[in-house]
């Protein structure tokens, strides 16, 4: 990844972190993620807000496509194919709950770095790509299990 792509990614991370943790928009995102019905009862326009979030997600996906295209030097339909599991594993490892309402950008970045180190380590160890996917899946299942245990412990206290 070139220096320009890293700079673009860093700017997106900083802006996203500020947007989520310092604005009303971010508080509404967490509220809707925790309990959409309760968020609607407090006056949040859940449908409109969700549409805006999906629009932002689409714009970020397009930006990611441009960054991958810049890295490869050509457009490829199959670039990034099957990266969904790694993306989900990265954010869950970083502390984002699959059930909504918890998480942060910094944790997602740390989780991404952990998944990248795992993948690169498996490539260096000459592990086949199918076993790499299995390893990431096992890490994802372990992260979800730890998240569930953390939620159970928090409910008890």
Give an overview of the whole structure.
The chain has 157 residues and is an all-alpha fold. The chain folds into two domains: 1-81; 82-157. The protein is 78% helix and 0% strand. It is built from seven helices and no strands. α1 (3-22) crosses α2 (24-34), α5 crosses α6 (105-124) and α5 (84-93) runs parallel beside α7 (129-156).
Distance between the termini: 45 Å
Quote the average pLDDT: 88
Number of helices: 7
The count of domains is 2
Tell me the radius of gyration.
Answer: 17 Å
Number of DSSP E strands: 0
General form: globular
Structural class: mainly alpha
Which H/E pattern describes the elements? Answer: HHHHHHH
Percent range for helical residues? over 70%
Low-pLDDT runs: none
Largest sheet: none
Describe the secondary structure blueprint for this structure.
Layout: H1 3-22, H2 24-34, H3 36-41, H4 46-72, H5 84-93, H6 105-124, H7 129-156
Summary keywords:
157 residues, mainly alpha, 2 domains, globular
Q: Summarize this, please?
A:
Helix content is 78%, strand content 0%. By secondary structure, the chain is mainly alpha-helical. The relative contact order is 0.09.
């Amino acid at each position: 990844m070139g220096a320009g792509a890293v700079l673009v990614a860093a700017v997106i991370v900083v802006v996203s972190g500020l947007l989520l943790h310092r604005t009303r928009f971010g508080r509404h995102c967490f509220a809707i993620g925790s309990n959409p019905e309760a968020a609607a009862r407090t006056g949040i326009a859940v449908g409109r807000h969700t549409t805006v979030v999906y629009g932002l997600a689409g714009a970020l996906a397009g930006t990611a496509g441009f960054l991958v295209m810049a890295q490869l030097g050509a457009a490829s339909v199959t670039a990034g194919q099957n990266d969904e599991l790694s993306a989900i594993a990265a954010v869950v490892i970083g502390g984002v709950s699959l059930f909504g309402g918890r998480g942060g950008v910094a944790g997602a970045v740390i989780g991404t770095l952990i998944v990248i180190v795992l993948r690169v380590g498996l490539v260096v160890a000459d592990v086949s790509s199918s076993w790499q996917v299995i390893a990431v899946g096992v890490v994802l299942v372990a992260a979800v299990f730890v998240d569930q245990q953390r939620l159970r412990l928090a409910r008890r206290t």
